[in-house]
Amino acid sequence: MEKRPEVSVIVPVYQVESYLERAVESLLAQTLEELEIILVDDGSTDQSPRICDEYARRFPEKVRVLHQENQGLGMARNAGVAAARGEYLAFLDSDDTIEPTMLETLYKKAKSGGYDLVMCDVKICYVEENRETVSVSYPQEEIDLADYIAHGNNITYSVNKLFHRSLWEGERYEKMLFEDIALIPSLVTRYHRMAYVPRAFYNYYRRGGTISTSQVGA
What we know:
Layout: E1 7-13, H1 20-28, E2 35-42, H2 48-58, E3 63-68, H3 73-83, E4 88-91, E5 97-98, H4 102-113, E6 117-126, E7 131-135, H5 145-151, E8 161-164, H6 179-190, E9 194-206
Parallel strand pairs: 1-2, 1-4, 2-3, 6-9
Antiparallel strand pairs: 4-8, 5-9, 6-7, 6-8
């Protein structure tokens, strides 16, 4: 029987030929070995589909590619969730990157306490302004759920979290702009076994016209 990956990372891809390789390379550099990378090409018309297929050819043991007609970011994530085989799921936007130890650290934290969800901090890189800031998710490592919901940061983000796959049974993104806001807080409030690693592992590159700031492909 084929061994299940510890983590499946779902990467929705739409018109990101300039950034896609950087994102995938950050996944291939992960210290977590049992990793599955699912690239979901959401009907891109640039070179993104070719780049996806090339990574799948070069790294068949790690990279899988799904091609579909353009349906939007949430639908691309749904397709990746449906195809994922990992014990845990994570999301990476295709114009962002993650630090090399992110997935291993969050996975070990999840396993150590039987957590359903583990989150980290986010480094926001303002590209046009050439500056960075860290969005701290919570002021202390031990999370009080009610206080986090009321005062925490990054609660609506999909991308700074590791989810046990059981959380996604019957759950899917809606076809809408800012689909995270409609789904992720709901997941957080219903699953109390949540942990936090106070490290800025996720690098969010904020610029105009990205997959998360434009309605095109969102």
